[in-house]
Amino acid sequence: MRRELRLRHRQDFLNLRQRGQQFRNPDMTLQIAPNSLTHNRYGVIVSKRLGNAVQRNRMRRRIKAILMKRHPWLVQGYDTVWIARQSSVRQPHDALLRIVDDLLQQAAIVERTPNS
User: Fold this and answer.
1) What's the pLDDT tens digit per position in 58-87?
2) Which CATH code, of 3.30.230.10, 3.20.20.100, 1.10.3210.10, 3.30.390.50, is assigned to 3-106?
3) What is the pLDDT of residue 2?
4) pLDDT tens-digit profile of 34-60?
5) Which residues contact 32 (CB under 8 A, 6 or more apart)?
6) 106-110: which pairs have CB atoms within 8 A and are 24 or more residues apart?
7) What residue spans define the domains of the chain?
8) Residue 44: what pLDDT?
């Protein structure tokens, strides 16, 4: 993920938590708020409760890979934070893809579908 697409600073995460909207499903939470940029920025939070460092890093990589696939189809100008829950660790790639797509649809930031 390119540096300009990443949420990196603690203050960015805290601001998003305070002023953003939250969308949930049993496997993941999405926090989203408009930013003043011409592109989206993404942050991924994976708690230590989800497993050891290898499992947490794998989960981060999986979520980021899906987000990069979906990035061209999204409305730009938002900060998003994705919070993985314990049940998402066991999900296969296609199920994780559906989870992310569902949350993006709930947030209404999908400009066009990947299949169109």
Assistant:
1) 999 999 999 999 999 999 999 999 999 999
2) 3.30.230.10
3) 87
4) 999 999 999 999 999 999 999 999 999
5) 16, 20, 21, 22, 23, 78, 79, 80, 81, 107, 109
6) 106/23, 106/25, 106/30, 107/21, 107/23, 107/30, 107/32, 107/80, 109/32, 109/74, 109/75, 109/78, 110/70, 110/73, 110/74, 110/75
7) 3-106
8) 96
**pTM to 2 decimals?**
0.89
